[in-house]
Amino acid sequence: MPYETTSHTPSHRVRIAADTTPAGRPFRVALVYKNAGLRPSSHIGLGVTAVNTAKYLRAKGIYTDVWGVTTIAGLMEKIQQARTEPPGIQPITHIVISAPWLSAADLQDLAINNPSLEIAVTSHSNVGFLAADPKAFALIREYMNVETFTPNFHLAGNSPRLSAWIENTYADPCWTLPNLYYLDGTAPGARPPFSGDTVRIGCFGAQRLLKNILSAGAAALEIASSMRIDLEFWISGKRIEGPQGTTRSLKEMFAGLKWAKLIENDWESWPQFRQTARHMDLGLQPSFTETFNVVTADLVAEGVASVTGFAIDWVPSYWQAKVDDVSDIAAVGAALLRNPKAPADGLAALTAHNQTGFQNWQTYLTDTTPHL
């Protein structure tokens, strides 16, 4: 490990004084993510996930903030601001940082200097998907050291599969803090079976190999060809991560087909994307490895079913296909287009996921603050 936890001493940072939590309102949570955009709140996946989780927790009576920061100094500034709010505002009790990106030494300083705060870092993906970030595993291993020697620092995963692997492999505790998706009651419970001349199929998200976008495009072509209809296949543009052959390969796959269009949808704000999602007939998200997948939840909220792999395990089982079998993806997709009950089943599955996930959050908040 790059530093010695046992001999680590706090840095010169100014200590932030602890507060006494008032009775009756025991928790206030701050969800922190790395804000890569210029806006106060980012529209990348982690920002959207934080907003949804905060809205759900607030609806359940847990005061929750969302902080987009770029540095440890920015996080400390947010903590200081929260500590100087007018009397009567619930003091911060828990900070949950999305994804491993802040240094372990800085987070240990933060925990030592703020003993009244419970600090957690949540790994945002399953084991395989963390390959997109070459620094992720090094940071996770360092966070284990911090957790061992710091009473108010915790490691977490947003999937029980990841948390169980860490505990089984390294014998270190790892909480499960799932993504929650706020549903405001407007999601349609049914949708007429598809009967048009042009089918709109969306495979949205950053272009990564593990997203399996090329297989999704091939399946979309097979669906349209077998149904003898035109196709619009929508993908997200301007978020290419890793090898950059996906769009070029898709263009070659679609070349010369008068009945099929490849549409690159520039990255949108989340409200704008929800409008785009609403006009899809079907989603394809055949990821090889995933934990939640917010795009699938966005489509559910707009009454659109999606074909997924087994990695996205909260969806109805009949939505899942063999992700390395393009014809199986196509067969499941065609069946979803014909099934008017599929959106309602997806909504029920997402609601059940939220309920189970909230129980995990309740357990974490309660068990990490037994003195409250």
List its traits.
single chain, 372 residues, alpha/beta, 6-stranded parallel beta sheet, 5-stranded parallel beta sheet
Give structural notes.
Helix 9 links the parallel strand 10 and strand 11. The strands form 2 sheets. The protein has a 6-stranded parallel β-sheet, sandwiched between helices. Helices cover about 40% and strands about 15% of the residues. It has 11 helices and 11 strands. Helix 3 runs parallel beside helix 4, helix 6 packs parallel to helix 7 and helix 6 crosses helix 10. The chain is an alpha/beta fold. It is elongated. The N terminus is likely disordered.
Radius of gyration: 22 Å
Shape: elongated
What letter string, H or E per element, gives the SSE order?
A: EHEHEHEHEHEEHEHEHEHEHH
User: Fraction of residues in helices?
Assistant: 25-40%
Give the count of helical stretches.
11
Spatial gap, N to C terminus: 35 Å
Structural class: alpha/beta
Largest sheet: 6 strands, parallel
Arithmetic mean pLDDT = 88
What is the topology, as strand order, of the major beta sheet?
A: 2-1-3-4-5-6
Strand content: 15-25%
Number of strands: 11
Low-confidence stretches: 1-23
